Amino acid sequence: MDMVLEIVDAFIADPIYATLHPASRLSAASQHASATLSSVREGATSVFTKPYEYEPSSKYLRQYLPTPSHFAYESAWTRDNPYRQFLTLFLITWVFGMILYFICASASYRWVFDKTTFTHPKFLKNQIKLEIKQSLESMPGMAMCTAPLFLAEVRGYTKLYDSPSEAPFPLYNYLQFPLFLLFTDCLIYFIHRGLHHPAIYKRLHKAHHKWIMPTPFASHAFHPLDGFFQSVPYHVFPLLFPLQKVASVALFVFVNIWTILIHDGEYVSENPVINGAACHSAHHLYFNYNYGQYTTLWDRLGGSYRKPNKELFDKSTKMGKEEWDRQSKEMEKIVKEVEGSDDRSYGSENGELKRVNKKKA
Fold it and tell me: Are strands 243-244 and 160-161 parallel, antiparallel or unpaired?
């Protein structure tokens, strides 16, 4: 995340901080002079205390980013100030997460999501609006909890490395990806299953299970602490294992996209290993199954795996009344066991479905 932070500093944050929280002219001049003359007067003692000196977070950024402008030296909060770093990381996590959410969820809704779901008996009234509302309300809280973990990365408390040549061994540059997925899949399984404990479920995780037939916009519709807890394994991994910096950003984006894909209701994969949309839809319908994120491994080992029934992979039966009635009957029984009573407000979105069909025609 230090590379992302440096890019944001260079193009957005430097002039904003210089304007909103400027340094004294003498301080700014000394910092700029120290940065530009440090190579000439290496080892010299400055009369100023710890002036800011620019150090690129990656050799790749050194090649492509311009030299920091004068704005980088004109704020009382220099780029290496931890308070500034925390604030900027919070805003990056919140704003970038929100942009990624809307782009990917909208694309999935437009080209993947089956709009016939609107007429499912367990689809909520105004559900999409409610999913988006809950997501937007939760994202600032999730970002606030996540920013300290990103700050730990930026300030060097993890095993992130820059160049592929710095990997433990050459093959590790490829192995880090499956290792990351397997490690986080394991931890998320136990965290997710723990969130279903009766003492915790209604306080935190029930908010996400409001959506029995989720759309892509439900992907981030969590209680803020619920969403944060399930993201913790992604930050634990670089504390324990080496991870290349560009790979860490790519995986962060992938994780968010995958979260959207397993809520899109398009049951493409009948693979017994992959925990795809069909497995996760079964989780939303039947609550106590398929806690895994990427694979079915830990559900199989933990006795919580439920194989999606074959009707879901057949277009002619997936959205049929017989299948829906069967789903609804079992779901209602489980809701009584898990929640006691069902406080959801159901109502088909026939108007939305007609609008979509009219647009297609």
Answer: parallel
State the Cα–Cα distance between residues 295 and 352, nearest whole angstrom. Answer: 34
- Give the per-residue SS3 of the chain: CHHHHHHHHHHHHHHHHHHHCECCHHHHHHHHHHHHHCCCCCCCCCCCCCCCCCCCCCHHHHHHCCCCCHHHHCECCCCCCHHHHHHHHHHHHHHHHHHHHHHHHHHHHHHCCCHHHHHCCCCECCHHHHHHHHHHHHHHHHHHHHHHHHHHHHCCCCCEECCHHHCCCCCHHHHHHHHHHHHHHHHHHHHHHHHCCHHHHCCCHHHHHHCCCCCHHHCCCCCHHHHHHHHHHHHHHHHHCCEEHHHHHHHHHHHHHHHHHCCCCCCCCCCCCECCHHHHHHHHHHCCCCCCCCECHHHHHHCCCCCCCHHHHCHHHHCCHHHHHHHHHHHHHHHHHHCCCCCCCECCCHHHHHHHHHHHC
Structure tokens at 17: 């901080």
Render each residue's pLDDT in the chain as its tens digit; 361 residues: 999 999 999 999 999 999 999 987 655 555 555 554 444 444 433 333 456 788 888 888 888 888 888 999 999 999 999 999 999 999 999 999 999 999 999 999 999 998 999 999 999 999 999 999 999 999 999 999 999 999 999 999 999 999 999 999 999 999 999 999 999 999 999 999 999 999 999 999 999 999 999 999 999 999 999 999 999 999 999 999 999 999 999 999 999 999 999 998 888 767 889 999 999 999 999 999 999 999 999 999 999 999 998 888 887 788 788 889 999 999 999 999 999 999 999 986 655 555 555 554 5
